[in-house]
Amino acid sequence: AQKVTQAQTEISVVEKEDVTLDCVYETRDTTYYLFWYKQPPSGELVFLIRRNSFDEQNEISGRYSWNFQKSTSSFNFTITASQVVDSAVYFCALSENPGTASKLTFGTGTRLQVTL
Amino acid sequence: DAGVIQSPRHEVTEMGQEVTLRCKPISGHNSLFWYRQTMMRGLELLIYFNNNVPIDDSGMPEDRFSAKMPNASFSTLKIQPSEPRDSAVYFCASSPRRTGHSMNTEAFFGQGTRLTVV
């Protein structure tokens, strides 16, 4: 069975600090997809990134970067120079069965609080 | 382009009443998902449809829950009778048809329906 673990329940940082959100996953499949979603206080779920299991290249998008390491089954998310607007709950998710739809297994989320 | 549209945004109902949640997926998307979010269980998949056909309903908690997708642009999640433990935020999501070598795509979520059963 697939599983996603986000061990950090809550993180508080001061604005401009860098912060890394950890994600560890378990799956028996060799082909799978990993995702990060953001849930701001308004409640909606916002897609951030998708990464397939064959692509271990790290990705950077502005202040966001992702480090995918199959050897440790981790897909960590770093926010550089955090801002108050980054305050949200962040979810890591896993999808197997690439031949079907994007059925997601979510982690329990990490609540990030960025203060001035 | 409009995103996934859910209605109502908030619903408060009395125990025992029937509740119907509605979802309009993004036009052209062929997969639709219903998720539930609670403090205790986090985000969990209830059911998903592919081309309007239910594929996996193993996450549906009880027979009191039912979901339908009569056409590509509309789905409902019904709870009858509702109970206080059904109180949660219910999300609908859709994802597009896979193309080429893209075997899987991200799901786009609606804003959710916050259900409170008293």
Please give a structural write-up:
The complex is a heterodimer of chains A (116) and B (118). Chain A has 116 residues and is mainly β. Chain A contains no helices and twelve strands. Helices cover 0% and strands 52% of the residues of chain A. In chain A, the strands form three sheets. In chain A, strands 2, 5, 6, 10, 11 and 12 form a six-stranded mixed β-sheet that branches. In chain A, a hairpin with a 2-residue loop joins strand 7 and strand 8. Chain A starts with a strand and ends with a strand. The model of chain A has no long low-confidence stretch (mean pLDDT 92). Chain B is built from no helices and eleven strands. The chains are: A mainly beta (116), B mainly beta (118).
How many strand elements of chain B? Answer: 11
Question: Rg of chain A to the nearest angstrom?
Answer: 14 Å
Largest sheet of chain A: 6 strands, mixed
Percent in strands of chain B:
over 45%
Mean pLDDT of chain A: 92
The portion of residues forming beta strands of chain A comes to over 45%
Q: Could you state the order of secondary-structure elements of chain B as H and E? A: EEEEEEEEEEE
Distance between the termini of chain A: 41 Å
| Cα shape of chain B | globular
Fraction of helical residues of chain B: under 10%
> Structural class from helices and strands of chain A?
mainly beta
**General form of chain A:** globular
Oligomer status = heterodimer
Please outline the major beta sheet of chain B. Answer: 7 strands, mixed
Helix content of chain A: under 10%
